[in-house]
Task: inverse folding
């Protein structure tokens, strides 16, 4: 890969994080109706949604889980921080459902199991495993999004781009 290609890729990676955070944080993961938002918001949200639609559902779902605000019990929020929703979903997946329980009931059971794990110091390696899996699942989603969007310039105006809180 040439130096210029590496620069373009790095710019695309940074833009990807900004776009996804903005789309789920500011736009609630939706494209507004044409007259309900500023023109640039409508155009940017459409571009981002189009790129997200190219992803497998588990990658798009990871972004939605990560960036959609939720309130978690204090122990889980403190232990997993911004990855709490992804961790809860991974923990849910380790206990398949027979289809008779609602998603909320399954999530509640997962939260209870996680709280027990956090309280039991002997299970710290299980918590690290969940952290690791959530982190890498989100990174894989980011990589897939970068591939879907290519090395195009950021869909957001520069002023918006610069005002987003830094995170990666």
Result:
């Amino acid at each position: 890969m040439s130096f210029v290609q590496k620069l373009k890729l790095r710019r695309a990676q940074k833009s990807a994080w900004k776009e996804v955070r903005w789309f789920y944080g500011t736009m609630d993961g939706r494209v507004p109706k044409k007259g309900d938002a500023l023109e640039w918001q409508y155009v940017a949200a459409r571009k981002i949604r189009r790129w997200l639609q190219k992803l497998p559902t588990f990658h798009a779902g990871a972004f939605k889980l990560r960036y959609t605000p939720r309130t978690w019990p204090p122990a889980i929020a403190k232990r997993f921080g911004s990855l709490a929703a992804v961790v809860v979903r991974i923990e849910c997946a380790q206990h398949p459902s027979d289809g008779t329980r609602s998603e909320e009931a399954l999530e509640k059971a997962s939260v209870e199991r996680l709280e027990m794990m956090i309280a039991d110091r002997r299970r710290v390696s299980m918590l690290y495993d969940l952290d690791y899996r959530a982190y890498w699942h989100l990174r894989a989603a980011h990589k897939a999004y970068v591939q879907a969007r290519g090395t195009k310039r950021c869909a957001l105006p520069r002023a918006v781009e610069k005002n987003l809180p830094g995170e990666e």
User: Anything to note?
Assistant: The CA atoms of residues 36 and 89 lie 33 Å apart. Residues 3-163 form one domain. The chain has a mean pLDDT of 91. The helical segments are 3-25, 39-53, 57-67, 74-80, 84-93, 103-119, 124-149, 158-163.
